[in-house]
Amino acid sequence: MTMRRFFIALGAGTALALTTLSPAFATDERVVRNGDATIAYSVRGQGPLVLVIASTGRGTAEFGPLADQLAKRGYKVALPEPRGIGGSRGPMKNVTFHDFGRDFAAVIAAEGGRAIIAGHAYGQWIAKTIAADHPQMTRGVVLLAGGAKKWPQELSDAITMINDPSSTRDQKLAGLRLAFFADGNDPTPWLEGWHEDVTKSQRDARKITNQSAWWAGGTAPMLDLQAGSDPFRPESSRAEAKDEFGDRVSIAVIPNASHALPAEKPVETANAIADWADKLPK
Question: What's the confidence (pLDDT) of residue 11?
C-alpha cells in the first residue's frame, strides 16, 4: 500500500507534509499562494514536471489514471485545482487568464521552475497564457482536446445546461454525449464534478482577456493532441494550429474519443504526451 502526504503551505513555494494512505502512486497534496489566491494541488511521480490544467468548470480528480500513467513513464505530475474547486480559493470576479496563469505558475515555481504544461479543452487557453507570460517556465505546451477556432453554439449551450443544477439527469447525459463522449464511452462519471460558479468565472475571464496576448503560447514546442470524434475539433480543423504556428507544432490524434479525451482514454493520452515529451530538450 502506498502513502499519500498532505502539504500545508508556509508561503508561495514552501510546504510541510502530513501522511495518509492512497491506493495508487504516492500522492502529495500541497498548497501555494499567488497574491490573494491559494492554490491546492497534488503531485505524484518523479522526473520532469508535467502540469495538467482542467477544462471548464471541472477539477482534476478525473486525471488520476492519466497522472499515474505519466508517472509510470518517468514524469512528475502536478494537478492544480482552479479557483473555487477543492482547496483553491481566490477572487472569482474581474480576473483574467493572466491571473489564472499566475496561479499555476506558482505551482511550477514550487515544483522546480520548468514544466510541460498540458491544458484540457478550456485549460489549453490557460496553458498558452502561462507559456506566453512565463516562457522561462515552459518546456512545452500540450493542447488536450483543444477546440477549433470556431465551433457550433449548441456545444457551448450543452456546457451551460450540464452546469445547471435544474437540468435533469437525462438532459445532462444527452449533453455529455453530444459534446464530450464518443459512442461507446460511458459519460455517467461526468454527471458530477461540475462547478457552475467556476464556469461563469472562467467564461467572464475569457471576455476581458486580450486574446492576442496569449493565443500563440509564446514560442514553446506544442503538441496538438486531438480526439478523433471531438465535435469541437472536426477533421477539417486538424491542421489549424500547425498552419498558424508552423513546425513547433506536432499533431497526434487518438481515435474513439471525444472532448473528454483525458477521461475517455487516459493511458493513450498519457503515452502520447510522454512520447512527445521524451524528445524535448532537457
Answer: 46
Is there a domain that residue 40 lies in?
A: no
pLDDT above 70 for 114? yes
Environment class of 65 (CB within 10 Å of its CB; exposed 0-12, middle 13-18, buried 19+): middle
Could you give the CA distance from residue 31 to residue 29 in angstroms, rounded to a whole number?
A: 7
Give the mean model confidence (pLDDT) for residues 226-238.
Answer: 94
Residue 188, domain member (yes or no):
yes
Residue 16 has φ and ψ, to the nearest 5°, of: -115, 160
Q: How many domains does the chain have?
A: 1
**What pTM was estimated for this model as a whole?**
0.89
Which range marks the domain in which residue 235 is found?
A: 46-277
Order the strands of the 37-44 sheet from edge to edge: 14-22, 2-11, 27-34, 37-44, 76-80, 49-53, 115-120, 138-144, 222-227, 249-254
